[in-house]
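ESCALATION

Customer reports they have been waiting on this structure for their group meeting. Please prioritize. Original submission:
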Amino acid sequence: MAKKATKEVMKDFNLKLLLKEIYYSKGIDRASLSKKTKLSPATVTNLVAELKEQGKIKEVGNAVSTGGRKPIILAINPDYRYVIGIKIGYSYINFMLSDLNGTVKSVEQKAYDQITISLIIDELKLQWQLWKEEYGIEFLGIGVAVSGVVDSINGTVINSYLLKWKNVKLAESLKMEFSVDVQILNDVDSFALAQMWKGKAYQYKNAAFLTLGVGIGGSIILNGTLLSTYGTVTEFGHITVREDGIKCNCGSRGCLEAEASFKALSEKINLATTSTKLKTAFQTMNDAESSEIDFIKRALTEDKETVLEIFREYSRLVGIVLKDIINIFRPDYFLIGGEAMAFSDYFYNDIVEFAKRNCFKGLSDNLLFDKDHIGENAWTLGCIYKVIDRDMFNSNIIND
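Update from on-call: job pushed to the front of the queue and completed.
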């Protein structure tokens, strides 16, 4: 019995090993698979036949022959299963459907006054049914990206200031309703994984990410591995940049998030401007992300000099945190993203130059700074990638 069990475990391991190699190679023949995995050609042939029968892979053409029969190229079957991604933001939920290659099939975003577990379940049931009817494909799992301190191992939102959640067992609730695997990530960790999957970050072993907008967050990848499983190691938004500064949602004062979020920028513009129109617009502004963005855009039209002065201070504060991150982690690649990049012309070059000028000598010499090129989908694609990596290959993309 023990021998049989060991044989089955080994076979399962080899199947996943081959599947992962096929997936990440984006097209490979059997002979190359044998060399890369060090499995015998006969074992590769047998296991590939099984993967094809399961519908997980398919033949996609022929490679160039060096003599004799042309090798057949194998690739993942992206339509074997689809994955549902959910990004829970401030007063909205983004629902995304993706195939196994990360090709987005559908996106639905809805606004809500208050987000609760029961609301998420009810809305997901509707989307689940609609997508099942439209595409007729089984779902591999559900990935969820949420702001706050997240225990990714146990699928619990420990604390989300934005949503006013504490110790919410989100994965457990969703698994009970939908009977599929559920993976929960801090939203910036999800953003970072998307950059590894679909952006330039995969080329670098050590990468840092800072997202700027309604909230401010960060993530770190060291030796190709996402650093945090609890969403607390990289709370860059709560680095103190001003003693006795503005009170933050976390209870402290002078955090970067309190001093440089959209809310803070809007309030600082309102205090500094002499424009009656702007002050009236600020008073009528709703406490919502889109309103703050609209207010800053309007301010650039009504009183550009004041806004530029506010962004000069913003650049210094964000630059301090960039410098600190470089000094602590020494990344090879530093990506800056988030909603604030809509105003990047007014701060991006300044924060990069400040960080380079002030970080420990030599640490930024070979560091590549970059902007997010994926866009809004990055926040949800990362948790989709986590589901694929866990459930298709059973690997540890997060250091457990």
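Sent to customer with the following note: The longest strand covers residues 82-89.
Escalation resolved.
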